[in-house]
Amino acid sequence: MDSLESPELEVCCLKPLDGALPLDAWQGLSEVSLDPNPFFSPSFLRPLLKEMNGESVRLIAVRNKTTGEWRMAAPVGRRRLGLALPVQTAWATDYSPLGTPLLHPEAGPETPELFLKAAAGPGKVLAVPYLPLTSETAQRMLEAGGGRIVVTAQSERACHTGGRQGEEQFKTAFSGKRRKEMNRLLRRLGEHGETRFESLQGASAREGFETFLDLEAAGWKGRSGTALKSRPETAAFARQAIANSAERNALRIDRLWAGDKLVAALVLFSERGSVFAWKIAFDEDYARYSPGAQLVLETFRKNLEIPGFSLADSLAIPGHSMIEPLWRGRLETGMLLVAFGAAAKLRQDLCLADMAAERFLRSAARSLRDRLKTA
């Protein structure tokens, strides 16, 4: 990779799993970044890449030449956006659907410009998916010079805020008929044993994660082979990422019990007033009591009690039938498609057409499948 630098800054293309990597500098940036992203921290990303064949992913870091302090960083790899065209992409995945790069609050405007140019690589195109568009980091990248930026793949997913607005969101979600019905279902669940909610943190959360893995594997995800415990590599990555976060006290597991029976569990990462709902599981034998919804509401309540709490991101797909009626806020996300050079617009148009073709074929396949089901 060609060297990119300014009088004060330089860009490095690093192997995230390199034993000589300055982990303190990386972790330090993660802990102060404008917008938290636990999935781009070394505690999560290194286990993910180690166990999930991420050897080709590189960490693009902008750092101060004199002090060595990191000013911006994100993992980047090459993959298809649509049917055919591979481009450089910020490494957000199904296990980490948040593409916000780590950006130092004191970074100047040249920092995102250098980062974007370096991350785009020889192909001169970079995609940053699953990016909260109202975040400060997104705004600074949109204002960066030197490239052509378009926003695509926009959608909204469930979230909730803190403070007075969050309290109002909770009252709206847990009022009227829903409140009456949820209380009735919780009483019915209590017929199987006294119900109680609990939150685990630190070492107890690490231990509780094993119970979560068993609960998830016993349900539909286990039957479909998508539970974390279904494959050795996903179980190994998850255990290490959880252990790392628990050690930093950046992990919480909320649980609902009926007597001595665990009926629902929710794994959350927390970073400086932000909470990220990573994985949820429930015992399907108790599905008629809506244990997942019961726990999500309790998590909402607990989040509002956290000093300095500002945002809970569900990380859920848009339109999620369980969480959207309960977490009433909406987080607008999109993909930044950044291109450089004289043919920047052409490169972007080709990428957009490729993505549109994939969406069309997926829609056609779903329609055909639905017709075959009803034939």
Automatic annotation (TrEMBL):
UniProt superkingdom? Bacteria
Task: Please provide an example of a Pfam family that matches this protein in its UniProt record.
Answer: Acetyltransf_6
BioF2-like acetyltransferase domain segment(s): 177-303
The name under which this protein is listed is GNAT family N-acetyltransferase
